[in-house]
Amino acid sequence: MLGEYRITGSGASAIAADIEGAVGSGALGPGDALPPLRDLARELDVNPNTVAAAYRLLRDRGVIETAGRRGSRIRSRPATAARDEIRIDVPPGARDLSTGNPDPALLPPLAEALAEAAAHHARTPALYGGPPVDAELARLARAGLDADGVPGGPIGVTSGSLDAIERVLAAHLRAGDAVAVEDPGWGSLLDLVPAMGLRAVPVAVDDDGPVAAAVARALQAGVRALVVTDRGQNPTGAALSGARATELRRLLAAHRHVLVIDDDHVHGLVDLPLHCLSGATDHWALIRSTAKAYGPDLRLALCTGDAVTVDRVRGRHRLGAGWVSHLLQRTVVHLWQSGAVDPAATARAYGDRREALLGALGARGVTAHGRSGMNVWVPVPDETGAVAGLLQRGWAVAPGARFRLGSAPGVRLTVSPLAPADIEPLADAVAAVLRPAGAGRYG
């Protein structure tokens, strides 16, 4: 069953640690079946309840999955094997379009903002017992949310979008609960859900966001939460349209117990209006990150939502990290107040590259998608062949396996590094590698 590997341990924690370590080292691989409870208990000379507890720990950590009488197996993508590890070595001279990073040239210089934050700290140092959210940051954030039609709610601050999503999910869900996620979707989220002991339910996506029929099936199947990317969806560039948002709100009206999370991670670099699902159910959260507009190392995200959700997130945060550095918060305040980033100009810069690439691919008969943001998604019949073929031609792209659960293969091209002169050669390379095949959806 496990080849030559022999599980060891005399307590639940030790057994679970041994199995998790074996997965991390590669001694146990995805799909490997674990011994039945009683068989392993006899082998280790422990009570079957001890093995059952070990398996529960592993399931809650996202390492294994259980299927009733079919037993327990190592997950196809255990939490110890992050999707970011699905990468290719970029040889010297190749252009790397695989990282998903913003263009450094479009990020603002931070020296002045950091200096102003330090000066503010000198005047009013943040000390233990102080408010976790800077008052001016909360005021500016709330004004921006009001302008975008986001329902009223308190403001929380976390260390990035994924941190916020994890805290919101933990505020309401328990191990074993099902979460509807976009497929293809953000690889880090697809890793996070099973790592929290939750069960991911894939929802198909098209250019206007999650497909209503797929969301309806997920709701009927009993999901406890739905995570939606409002704009600049990673990897497809989808953006929730007004008509789709209305359609999804109608579906959610009959499932008000479902937690809804809106991810607006590209706020500040898109020109499409915000359409969100916030307020469609009793518990909801909308999250805005500064990473794409101001740089990935500025680890700050704003979170608003219903009072219960934000209060739970804040309370749990206080027990751990305590707060996000007020130096970072004041840095963002200065960036907002100084107008260091022109969202319209930034959106045009990414949009021009994205639209140029989409047009060039379309002219060559290649179906591609990228309604917003900094990525273009190209459906392919064979990811391995497409990635290898493009690498041979000097272009490194991200394999779709990073972003998929059950949807069709594809590759992601990040437009951030592209100059106008790159568009035609890149489109020629993609067309040369692919046998064009249209696809109206990504799943």
- Based on Cα principal axes, name the global outline: globular
Mean pLDDT across the residues is 91
The helix content is 25-40%
Tally of DSSP helical segments: 15
Q: What's the Cα radius of gyration?
A: 23 Å
Count of β-strands: 15
- Share of residues in strands: 5-15%
CATH homologous superfamily heading of the largest domain: Type I PLP-dependent aspartate aminotransferase-like (Major domain)
Instruction: Identify the CATH class of the largest domain.
Output: Alpha Beta
Instruction: Report, as a whole number of angstroms, the end-to-end distance.
Output: 33 Å
Main beta sheet: strand number and arrangement?
A: 8 strands, mixed
Class by SSE composition = alpha/beta
Mind telling me which CATH architecture of the largest domain this is? 3-Layer(aba) Sandwich
Q: Write the element-wise H/E pattern from the N-terminal end onward.
A: HHHEEEHHEHEHEEHEHEEHEHHHEHEEEH
Low-confidence stretches: 436-440
What is the number of domains?
A: 3
Strand order, sheet with most strands:
4-11-10-9-8-5-6-7
> What fold name stands as the CATH topology of the largest domain?
Aspartate Aminotransferase, domain 2
Please tell me about this protein's structure.
39% of the residues lie in helices and 14% in strands. It is an alpha/beta fold and 443 residues long. The protein has an eight-stranded mixed sheet, sandwiched between helices. Strands 12-15-14 form a three-stranded antiparallel sheet, covered by helices on one side. A hairpin with a 2-residue loop joins strand 6 (199-206) and strand 7 (209-210). Helix 2 crosses helix 3, helix 8 (212-220) runs parallel beside helix 9 (242-252) and helix 13 packs across helix 15. The longest helix has 21 residues, at 343-363. The radius of gyration is 23 Å and the shape is globular. Mean pLDDT is 91; it is low at 436-440.
